[in-house]
Amino acid sequence: MSKNIENVQPLRKKEDISTVQYFLRQGTYGSRNSLIFLIGINTGLRCIDIISLKVGTVRTNKMPFVIEQKTSKKRQVNLQGIAKEIDDYILEQGFTSDNDYLFPSRKENITEKIKVKGCFPVVNNKVLDDSNYSKLHFEYNFIYQHRISLNSMILPLKKAKHGHITVKGFYRVITKVGEQMNRSDLGTHTMRKTFGYHFYRQTNDIMLLSHILNHSSPSITARYIGITDDEINKNLTNFRLG
Question: Distance between CA atoms of 31 and 210, rounded to whole angstroms?
C-alpha cells in the first residue's frame, strides 16, 4: 500500500542521497532504477512522467518537452547536468528503437501454451482457480474469462505487452531501499520532494520552485517540500533593503 504524500520526506542530507543511489544500483535492474532516481531528484518530475519517457525523447535532446500526465501541462525539462549518465545508460541497454521506453518493465512478451484442466487452466503445473486468480489475473485474464469444460486442451496465450516499469513497481523498489536504511518515509514522491528541497535551499526562490512544480501557490510548495516557517524566517533574518 502506498504512503500518503505527507508521510514521504525529502532526502535533506547529501549523504542520504548517496546511500539511496548505492542501494538502487544493486541488482539486475540497478542501472534502470538509479537513473529513474537521478532524473527525479534533478528535475522534480513526477514518477509517472519519468517512467513514461522514451529513448528518442532524451537520446539527442537534453532539453525535451514533457506533457505532465497529472496536469496535462507542457514543461521543458533540463537534463544537461546528467547528460552523460543518460547517454551511458542508453548505450549500455542497447535499445533498438527510439520508440522504446527508457525504463522498461522486467516483464516481457511471452507466448505460452496453457493446458486446460476441467474448467480451469493449468499454469506452471498449478491450477488457476478462484484462490489464485486475483494474483495472476493480469497475465491470464483472457483464458480465465473464456473457461470451458474440456479435460485436455492446449491453448496458446500471448501475454499482454508490458511497456515501462509502473509507479507501483518503482514504489516497491524505493520502499525496499527505505527498509535497508531503516527509514519508513521513502516513496515515489521522495525524488520530487528532494529536488524541491535542495532547489529551494540553493536559490531561496519559492516562487520559481512553485512554478517549476506546477503548484497553485508557494505555501503549498513550502509545505510539500517540508520547509517550515522557522526556516523561511531564518533566511530573512539578515535581509534588509534601504
Answer: 30
